Amino acid sequence: MTTTITTTGTSTIPTQEVYMSQGERALARGTHYIEESIWVYLMRDWDGIDRWVLDPVTVDGCGLDSGLEDGARNSECMCEDQAECDAVRDRMDRAPLPSADDLLHLLAESLGYTLTRAAQR
What we know:
Shape: extended
Helix content: 25-40%
Largest sheet: 2 strands, antiparallel
Strand order of the largest sheet: 1-2
Number of helices: 3
């Protein structure tokens, strides 16, 4: 990402923003970086079309499956209080994972979209 700085003269100076890892961003905010991943199951379209569609198990209303063998992790957290960080990780590991509907809203919010549910027929 590039930020442009306008000076009092007629020129602008483009500057690169400094990259920060998610662990560094959490540290700067005084929080812990805990991460998780989820599986979104896809399948070949039942109509025989060579395209990916959501497998019905993905949209069954239940929380999606963890993509990490051991659940939530804090291996990239840069904090100095490992005991507190482990406690936060353990709490997050017990928090329910999002359903497909929850994921849809998380993605829309992160990407700047507004969602409107289609009318039921």
